[in-house]
Amino acid sequence: MASQPSATVAALENMPHHRAEFGEIWAYLAYTAIHGTVYAYCTSPRKQSTARSLGTRTGADLVGEELYKELSTYLISRVERIQRKLAHKGDIELLRDYAYEWDRYMRGAASLRSLFSHLDRHWIKRERDEGKKNIYEVHTLALVQWKTHLFVPIQESGPRLIIPLLKLIAQERNGEVVDQNLLRTVTDSFSRLRKLEVMEVTTT
């Protein structure tokens, strides 16, 4: 039987309209996730007794862990929706839509890093300092989910992003007028994801 989504994840689905400013969407995410998780912790005798029995695992630890999980779950859900939108597109249309979605996602990730700076500075830092694997700073977590649930699936069926990008670069080198913003956005995406791969290799 499939597990039911938590109350926090369910609440996240009632987000502002997709045409809303991205900062508004992320602010809503932060407010809902934080308050939903804290409320769940404070009203759950099981969590409070667990925190006491663990000694070093305080209530704040449990809230941090749950918030991180909720945040990760939400990012996966959002990225998978974008991936489905791009799945059947190809060539320059795919490249343009990829760049558009990447730009929006990165602006959101920047807001997210600011909104969840407390989580970054405390729970995430402590977990990473203790050597926990697959725990990332908030902004890096957004990149990891983009790569895992969008970039890799798109590329699995062939170099669908690489081919139109190389065509665009060739056109520029031949003196043709190309969309510089598109070229810059896509190459920035590839560069960041490549750096992410390097970081993952050096930390394993």
UniProtKB/TrEMBL annotation:
<dbReference type="GO" id="GO:0031625">
    <property type="term" value="F:ubiquitin protein ligase binding"/>
</dbReference>
<dbReference type="GO" id="GO:0006511">
    <property type="term" value="P:ubiquitin-dependent protein catabolic process"/>
</dbReference>
<dbReference type="InterPro" id="IPR016159">
    <property type="entry name" value="Cullin_repeat-like_dom_sf"/>
</dbReference>
<feature type="domain" description="Cullin N-terminal">
    <location>
        <begin position="30"/>
        <end position="194"/>
    </location>
</feature>
<dbReference type="InterPro" id="IPR045093">
    <property type="entry name" value="Cullin"/>
</dbReference>
<dbReference type="Pfam" id="PF00888">
    <property type="entry name" value="Cullin"/>
</dbReference>
<dbReference type="InterPro" id="IPR001373">
    <property type="entry name" value="Cullin_N"/>
</dbReference>
<comment type="similarity">
    <text>Belongs to the cullin family.</text>
</comment>
<protein>
    <submittedName>
        <fullName>Cullin repeat-like-containing domain protein</fullName>
    </submittedName>
</protein>
